[in-house]
Write a structure and sequence with these properties.
single chain, alpha+beta, 11 helices, about 15% strand
Length: about 300
């Protein structure tokens, strides 16, 4: 029997968000900074909410575990989490918020539309970490972000003038740039888990290209699903540890396999392309030449 669709509330504006959760009404129509100490008395909402907003939140001193993606975190220490528009969120009523502290920056995508940040924000992988992972802040990093958010709060509480949006967006840009730096630091300092993921990725990549017969070209999504992480997280982790993203690793493995087939079999160039999963041989030739400087035929001839 088909299950009924889960009901949820659609939050399309900053005002919708603050009203739904019982936060103070925003001064600025497109951005709000919420002091979480002032929300300890609020009763958590039980209805799921679909937020068409960007949210950056630093939560501390929570008693219990909070689900972020598919991992539960202890938010007793400073942990930063990011949410992009279109993500569904449910409150965890079992968490004790009596000593909650920290802050939340909520802003509408319209705030960024005419600025370069509107495009750049889509490149930040931490907004699409559907499975991994919250950002664990060092004390100095937390203090730095607290200062940046305090500046944003002061600006959004000022009367709106011709410069307000420029200033707010520039401050958000700095905040996100620091968050990006701290995420890459985390990839380097939390090595055991990331090295384990790297090892498992390499095993998956090797296994895929040892499959016999024709099979589709592997995708970034394929390996992300196999490793139970998001594509963005996988690419960021690989880039931090190896200098190459997931697609570059796939292409390198693909070229290595192509060389084996070109030198170790009598397959034609077209047959080699089909064996590797290319639907059109000319795409294989184009990729091979871009990576090696030679066409497949020229490469085969050069080593004879």
């Amino acid at each position: 029997m088909k299950q009924p669709a889960k009901e949820f509330r659609l939050l399309e504006s900053v005002s919708d968000f603050t009203q739904h959760f019982g936060f103070p009404s925003p001064v600025h129509p497109l951005l709000a900074v919420i002091d979480l100490e002032q929300t300890r008395h609020l009763i958590p909402q039980t209805m799921p909410a679909l937020r068409q907003l960007y949210i950056i939140t630093l939560k501390k001193n929570l008693k219990g575990l909070i689900q972020y993606g598919r991992r539960a975190y202890d938010f007793n220490a400073g942990v930063l989490a990011f949410y992009a528009p279109g993500q569904l969120c449910e409150s965890n009523t079992s968490v004790d918020i009596s000593e909650l502290s920290g802050w939340m920056v909520v802003f509408h995508p319209d705030l960024l539309h005419k600025y370069p940040l509107g495009k750049k924000i889509t490149t930040y992988g931490f907004f699409s970490y559907q499975v991994h992972e919250a950002l664990h802040l060092a004390a100095r990093e937390e203090e730095m972000l607290d200062g940046l958010v305090a500046n944003i709060r002061r600006e959004c509480e000022q009367p709106i003038d011709a410069f307000s949006q420029d200033v707010l967006v520039s401050q958000l840009d700095v905040l996100l740039s620091y968050a990006n730096r701290f995420y890459h630091r985390q990839f380097l300092t939390r090595r055991p888990a990331e090295h384990d993921l790297l090892t498992r990725f390499e095993e998956q990549l090797t296994a895929y290209f040892t499959l016999e017969g024709e099979h589709p070209l592997p995708t970034v999504q394929y390996f992300a699903d196999a490793l139970h992480v998001s594509p963005a997280y996988l690419s960021d982790m690989l880039r931090a540890l190896t200098g190459q993203n997931t697609q570059q690793h796939i292409h390198q493995a693909l070229i290595n396999k192509a060389k084996q087939l070109l030198l170790g079999t009598s397959l034609t160039i077209n047959e080699t392309a089909f064996q590797l999963g290319f639907e059109y041989p000319q795409y294989f030739t184009r990729l091979f030449k871009s990576k090696t400087g030679l066409t497949p035929a020229a490469f085969r001839f050069s080593v004879q």
